[in-house]
## 1
Amino acid sequence: MTMAIDDMLRTYPADLGQVDRDRLRRCIEECAACAQACTACADSCLSEDRVTDLAKCVRTDLDCADICEATARVLSRHTGYDANVTRAQLMACATVCAACAEECERHASTHEHCRVCAESCRRCERACRELLDALG
Amino acid sequence: MTMAIDDMLRTYPADLGQVDRDRLRRCIEECAACAQACTACADSCLSEDRVTDLAKCVRTDLDCADICEATARVLSRHTGYDANVTRAQLMACATVCAACAEECERHASTHEHCRVCAESCRRCERACRELLDALG
Amino acid sequence: MTMAIDDMLRTYPADLGQVDRDRLRRCIEECAACAQACTACADSCLSEDRVTDLAKCVRTDLDCADICEATARVLSRHTGYDANVTRAQLMACATVCAACAEECERHASTHEHCRVCAESCRRCERACRELLDALG
Amino acid sequence: MTMAIDDMLRTYPADLGQVDRDRLRRCIEECAACAQACTACADSCLSEDRVTDLAKCVRTDLDCADICEATARVLSRHTGYDANVTRAQLMACATVCAACAEECERHASTHEHCRVCAESCRRCERACRELLDALG
């Protein structure tokens, strides 16, 4: 495991507040993993013979990668925490992960990269929702 | 004016749907402008004598830049449009723009970069809300 | 003109150094514009009938958008300036802009979005090279 | 381990070329990890009592996060591969990782987050250089 999320949370010099640290760490991790899977899945789609059938898949992958990365960054910051911003971004992230998972699942039986990507999206969607629940 | 948003909308090869093209263009433009202003404002804060008083401002600037850029990208795509994703991301963007404007306005009388940045955030917040209204 | 690049440069609270402010402003502006055009061009390619012929174009557009945005951010920061980092990122940006322009130019006669995008890439490439020249 | 980099490489539908897959995977992984560590380190710096002494550290962290993320994305794409673009971006990434490691190392004895972040930057710098060597 290369990501130093735990170390960075542990060495944060101020009070992290009442956040559920496990859910926070998992959500950052899943956002980073999902962004990578979506970027790679969009690229794999471009190398398939029938790209036309995958146009919507590429698009949703790209949205999902962008929103997951922005979310991972927002969640990696604790100074001057604003619950409204975190919540709104987590909701956008759960929404795009669900949409991308659904689209990738439609191609999962024919394209293995879509299957792997869909799983990553579902894990990230769940991590976002669990963190949202913990934030109240 | 360098941004080719209008040209890119005009040359999109498929149907753009019923979107209000003026509001869409303005929202993409304001997201890009706000991301730049927030990135620069965070950096200006770091060069002020009393950075400690501006820690929350830097943080909100960084969140705002990240979310605005992701939103500009989502709005620049029309293929396989998903209204739920667009709406959720626009709401997150309006939320962070309002938060960043509010924080920057607190320092606007002492730091001119905060004043300029706050204006950019308010314009972007308004553009997001107007596009949200148009999406229904 | 919405971008407040000039205002943000003018209100920077410390010394900007010997940088050529006009070239810096233009380069930030062209990076932001090119990132938007490339994001939109990739999406337009996905809505063309023969996406397969445009797979490399989509890929280069996506690389170009990512690298241009990172470059615009680096150039928007002046605190703790490191000439080596700025130079290396500007060289990467000029390289990808040239590659993307070349690829888009191959499709410019059939796809107008590629023509517009190629022009944006060429302007950004030139702005990067002119800023590199000024940095020495 | 959450990142599905290996799975995404394995399921890529076309020829990956002669790339050293281990070095590629490690480099993507280290870029993603370094981006997260730098984002979190910049935020931790903002919560330290003497932020002024850390202004350059925050700035370099932010540059490093932006450039690492762009690099991870470029490396996650294989369709229409352009060695010049990959090489230039890897060089920019190695440059900023070295600069950020150096700056963080100056504060490593007083701020543990800088120590953790410096290690992440050094690992990423090495991964970039090893991949550059393999690309020839």
## 2
Amino acid sequence: MYTDVPGQFEVLENGYVIAVDGVIKELCEELPKVYDESTVIDHTNKLIIPGFYDLHLHAGQYLQCGTGMNKQLLDWLKDYTYDLEKDFVDTDYADKVYGRFVDDLARYGTLGSCVFATSSTEGTERLYEAYKAKGIRAFVGKVNMVRNAPDFIIEEVQASLDGLKYLVEKYKDEPLVKPIVTPRFAPTSTEESMEALGKIAKEYDLPVQSHISENPAEVEWIKELYEWSTSYADVYDKFNLYGETPTIMAHAVYLTEEERKLSQNGKVYLAHCPDSNVNIVSGIAPVKQYMEMGIKVGLGSDIAGGHKIQMNEAVVRAIQLSKIKCFYEENNQPLSLSEAFYMGTACGGEFFGNVGKLKEGYELDALVIDDHELYKERYTLLDRLEKFLYVGDDRWIVERYVAGNKITV
Amino acid sequence: MYTDVPGQFEVLENGYVIAVDGVIKELCEELPKVYDESTVIDHTNKLIIPGFYDLHLHAGQYLQCGTGMNKQLLDWLKDYTYDLEKDFVDTDYADKVYGRFVDDLARYGTLGSCVFATSSTEGTERLYEAYKAKGIRAFVGKVNMVRNAPDFIIEEVQASLDGLKYLVEKYKDEPLVKPIVTPRFAPTSTEESMEALGKIAKEYDLPVQSHISENPAEVEWIKELYEWSTSYADVYDKFNLYGETPTIMAHAVYLTEEERKLSQNGKVYLAHCPDSNVNIVSGIAPVKQYMEMGIKVGLGSDIAGGHKIQMNEAVVRAIQLSKIKCFYEENNQPLSLSEAFYMGTACGGEFFGNVGKLKEGYELDALVIDDHELYKERYTLLDRLEKFLYVGDDRWIVERYVAGNKITV
């Protein structure tokens, strides 16, 4: 089961997914004779679905999930986050925490993630290595920040760029784990640093990730910091950081008409982070409206503004928030299950290449779900998928494949 | 750790909980000499907290958790719920499903629950037995419904009352698992059936549970069905079903001033069901306002309008919804962690007697939580509790005690 378009599921019951060298060749009801000698793995009565792709989360905040959730954003950063991020200059500590982080991603079925590490180059290198060891996909970002945060986690512009370039050179040709240009957000950058980052993105043809319009105070701050700008997105755009190369922008709760237009260019992916937007009381992003405008919208757990690393929870919370938005605001419609699933699988997967769909020509990234006999005997395949998304956990996922390779957890 | 009042946690670090015959004798920092010969169970570096008490859920809907969540309420009942509830006349099926249901409650730390079974007397009997076998607390309700639902799950008034009385006589003297009078909700009752239920509640001194004001259409329907009533609560109150004996009313999203006043009598417990209220797009109950008026508010998972049986999820979702309510409506404040925890432990526990607090004179119902070393070395006890509530699951709960007895899962 998978979604090819947001509006509906593709369902093949009791069929075969045929993969050659990690790429899906065809889906069929009967096994063609030509594969008589091939290996057949029997997953009868289980669900085979794409993996999840998390478009926004902070590995350096993983330990902090679910703490300080009743603090205001700035106190939360000050009392918890920055202190924690600082410790990732210690590579032993980074190995311990990132190892657990990457294990948990795989365990919960997140086969690809676009991740912020911290500003530490050495620490970020350990995160690349943790992903490589596990064999799951990632775009790994060393966080570039040069002002408006405590001294102990910002860097001089040149040092920040040098660190980035070192990691880009080291990892740019990796098959699964790749670099991504990562200004934390415009307030911790300067025009100088963003201009340099835009150049690096273009020179190496690298994707970009950052934050945008998470809450109204932040949007106001942008106007003060960049007086010449016509919008938050305009700041990034000015420095070739908004869709010049594939770009993920997290949150996007308050995009103006101008920004929505800029986001339609096909290379911008908005990462909707439902739990985080509630926990930090940011507001509810109008993602259904964005999708109807042809803007690409994926999902992010936003660890640790969001507390759950499980992407099935993000799928569910996106639906729940869309229902609440309908309840309180006119001109909104709730997300359907297939739309939310599409966001977490097909749209997110697209950022990584041909993954996120169980379709000819796509790499075989897949999860095998085994649910309880009492469900199997009573419910349809789609009911069972919905149930997994709403109430399942890692124990329901019995196999994980990335590019046809089995991942061990 | 526990809450004695909603506004704060009581924390004893590296202390002892001393229980004699299942009742807490004292909490202390050093073990008094008099207990030198007593059994000491070492839970060093773990968290000891009260169990959770779920004030509203439907055992007969357990299989349905997380299916049909994008349906409208009436279609959902028609296409899924009623068909499922019907099957509990088959006692073998009831044993299978209820066995799993009660196992899961214990596994996730719900040590007491106020539960709707179905209208089947035989089926409901199996639910009593499942709870007894597990050794956790429950008020078990045979669902009394005599109209406005498909024929195959309603009963004649007399048959419904006879079934209730049979179960009451059989189980009224049980120590942990007790009967509760359970009209499904006023629309499926008649004046005749409610009058009889009110009399039974009074005669046997039984508590009562039902639904109230889940959504505006339902409130309108009540006005049509009971033209003489001044409010939804007034209908129950007329028949001694609103706080004459201890009473749980689920949802209460839209209580009028008159109903709020009726709910202040000290015997009415509102069961706030956050996930359900979102899934079915009912609205967000103003629970903080209710609590400030001195109304008792506990939490319900509302399986299967709610999808998660885990009460830590209900605690978190209550906080999240209170934040959203603040965002959209004036005159609201978010729930603090201690307030939401109090709802799910101390307030819910009160309905079962002296449980829900780790305090002298209370029965020892408790959970022992073991979290990861990386958390223990970094965070305070309260941070670790918050983290368990936000991201923990049953694997973090290493022991469960009910009245001092260890529960096996």
